[in-house]
UniProtKB/TrEMBL annotation:
<dbReference type="GO" id="GO:0006081">
    <property type="term" value="P:aldehyde metabolic process"/>
</dbReference>
<dbReference type="InterPro" id="IPR015590">
    <property type="entry name" value="Aldehyde_DH_dom"/>
</dbReference>
<feature type="domain" description="Aldehyde dehydrogenase">
    <location>
        <begin position="40"/>
        <end position="456"/>
    </location>
</feature>
<keyword id="KW-0560">Oxidoreductase</keyword>
<dbReference type="GO" id="GO:0005737">
    <property type="term" value="C:cytoplasm"/>
</dbReference>
<comment type="similarity">
    <text>Belongs to the aldehyde dehydrogenase family.</text>
</comment>
<dbReference type="GO" id="GO:0004029">
    <property type="term" value="F:aldehyde dehydrogenase (NAD+) activity"/>
</dbReference>
<feature type="active site">
    <location>
        <position position="263"/>
    </location>
</feature>
<dbReference type="InterPro" id="IPR016162">
    <property type="entry name" value="Ald_DH_N"/>
</dbReference>
<dbReference type="InterPro" id="IPR029510">
    <property type="entry name" value="Ald_DH_CS_GLU"/>
</dbReference>
<dbReference type="InterPro" id="IPR016163">
    <property type="entry name" value="Ald_DH_C"/>
</dbReference>
<dbReference type="InterPro" id="IPR016161">
    <property type="entry name" value="Ald_DH/histidinol_DH"/>
</dbReference>
<protein>
    <recommendedName>
        <fullName>Aldehyde dehydrogenase</fullName>
    </recommendedName>
</protein>
<feature type="active site">
    <location>
        <position position="229"/>
    </location>
</feature>
<dbReference type="InterPro" id="IPR012394">
    <property type="entry name" value="Aldehyde_DH_NAD(P)"/>
</dbReference>
<dbReference type="Pfam" id="PF00171">
    <property type="entry name" value="Aldedh"/>
</dbReference>
Length: 502
């Protein structure tokens, strides 16, 4: 393994995280944070660079581990998502950390009157990051980069479900980082529940709403703030005037990213009633075109494990037994679903109704439900009556209907005409709302998530606020208070009149 010459690895040591317990690692990092103080820009940038190098230098070994963990996962997908996909945000953090961390003077006019105000963004200390199995590195390394940009130390716990991938990171991390900076927590340290109990300064979790709720409850016992990046049933709506061919292709493709195991995949689609048959036919045709083979196709991502395979197949069977119509793409000569390979064929369901499990449960697999609608309000009503999703999709123009859909619903984000395009912006936050999560990251939002916005003031006012607010209260104090009340009442009356004229 060769490290780029420009990377400073002086801080790295060969002490493995597994030489210490989770509590000991937390104590080591907190002591180092207090000893060294707030890191300068050079240190933060160096840490982000080493984090990038850990991924880039070992990318082939990581991709092989990911394929072994899934059973079948294309190298190109792993490289694009868990390696290259991290670099967009890590590079942005590295470029802007120095600017973001600078102290800012605010309300400069008041400073001239003797009241100076400054805003700092200080690091929190030690950040705990819990990652999921579907993109085990992207969803831990990107928030870790934000935490480093903000000046923190990091305890990282990638998913134990993708144990081989976690082992690769744990093996190589000491070549790049001292455990005082970054410590990789594995299943040998304990369970995810044990990790959630740590008294870190911020806990960041990506995963299911059910586990996220448990993490939040454990963190609350220690008053640890949390950021929860969760999932949900992401809806899609096709505009009456949309190009059905384009809509079918993009939504069929989006459903099959990573075998449908992405928190941003569309889960169900509302299509104009008159175009339902055309849409379903085109989705099936698209899948047949893309997957002439499945069982032996190394580019068709397997379901991660037997538990999830059984769960997804069960959702399909339950819907079919209760009256839904199943449309599956099964290549000639293949018997699918295949439990041994953990491969489920692309499946489209119509006629899904309330009471079917799939109507409520997030699928997280290669299954797309399609509903007809006559009026857009029907789709909006359905979406709004369910928990807020992580994202929502629209197929059509940026028109009045699109605005009506956005205004009438709530979701973490909205994407039109393509899959998860908000992920590729360096200015947009990523996060959910309600059951799909709380808090956000990416870009400056990530830096702010792992920082404390700290107010700093200096007063050279000719009067003492402390004296004015403590007894005894004089006639002068009363006159000043009454004068303030009259002034603000006058301002409020003007605001009422101004608003009526709008």
């Amino acid at each position: 393994m060769t490290k780029p010459a420009e990377v400073n690895t002086a801080a790295a040591g060969r002490v493995s995280s597994e030489a210490h317990s989770m509590t000991e690692l937390l104590e080591i990092q907190r002591a180092a944070f207090l000893r060294d103080g707030i890191p300068d820009a050079k240190t933060r940038i160096d840490r982000i660079t080493r984090l990038s190098s850990l991924l880039l230098d070992n990318s082939e070994e990581i991709a092989a581990a990911l394929e072994a963990d899934f059973g079948s996962r294309p190298r190109e997908l792993s490289m694009a998502t868990d390696i290259v996909g991290c670099m967009i945000d890590l590079t942005h953090q590295r470029r802007h950390a120095e600017k973001w961390m600078k102290e800012v003077n605010v309300a400069k006019g008041q400073g001239l009157a003797g009241f100076k105000q400054r805003l700092r963004h200080d690091p929190l200390g030690v950040v705990g990051i819990m990652g999921p199995w579907n993109f085990p590195l992207n969803l831990t390394f990107v928030p870790a980069g934000s935490a480093f940009a903000a000046g923190n130390r990091v305890l990282m716990r990638p998913s134990s479900v993708t144990a081989r991938t976690t082992d690769v990171i744990a093996k190589h991390a000491p070549d790049y980082f001292s455990i005082e900076e970054l410590a990789v927590i594995t299943s040998k340290h304990g369970s995810g529940s044990d990790f959630a109990k740590l008294k870190v300064d911020h806990m960041f979790f990506t995963g299911s709403p059910e586990v996220g709720s448990s993490v939040a409850q454990e963190a609350a016992k220690n008053l640890v703030p949390v950021t929860l990046e969760l999932g949900g049933k992401n809806p899609a709506v096709v505009d009456p005037d949309a190009d059905i061919d384009k809509a079918a292709k993009f939504l069929a493709d989006a459903r099959m990213v990573n075998g449908g195991q992405v928190c941003l995949c569309p889960d169900y689609v509302f299509v104009p009633e008159a175009k339902l048959g055309e849409f379903t036919d085109k989705v099936i045709a698209r899948w047949k075109e893309k997957f002439p083979t499945i069982r032996s196709n190394s580019e068709y991502t397997s379901t991660i494990n037997e538990k999830n395979f059984t769960r997804i197949v069960g959702l399909i069977e339950d819907a079919e037994q209760l009256g839904a119509t199943k449309h599956q793409v099964i290549p000639a000569g293949e018997s699918l679903p295949d439990a041994e390979a953990r491969k489920i064929p692309p499946t489209l369901l119509t006629g899904v109704k309330a009471g079917m499990k799939i109507e409520e449960d997030e699928v997280f697999g290669p299954v797309l439900t399609v509903y007809p609608y006559r009026e857009l309000s029907e789709a909006i009503s359905h979406i709004s009556s369910h928990p807020h999703p992580l994202t929502m999709y629209w197929s059509g123009d940026d028109n009045a209907n699109y605005k009506k859909l956005i205004d009438g619903t709530r979701s973490g984000s909205v994407n039109a005409n393509d899959f998860a395009t908000h992920l590729f912006s360096l200015e947009l936050p990523f996060g959910g709302v309600g059951k799909s999560g709380m808090g956000a990251y990416h870009g400056r939002t990530g830096f702010e998530t792992f920082s404390h916005a700290r107010a700093v003031t200096v007063s050279t006012l000719p009067v003492s606020i402390a004296e004015m607010m403590s007894p005894p209260f004089t006639n002068r104090d009363k006159k000043m208070t009454n004068g303030q009340l009259k002034m603000w009442a006058r301002f409020n009356r003007k605001a009422i009149k101004k608003n009526k004229k709008r």
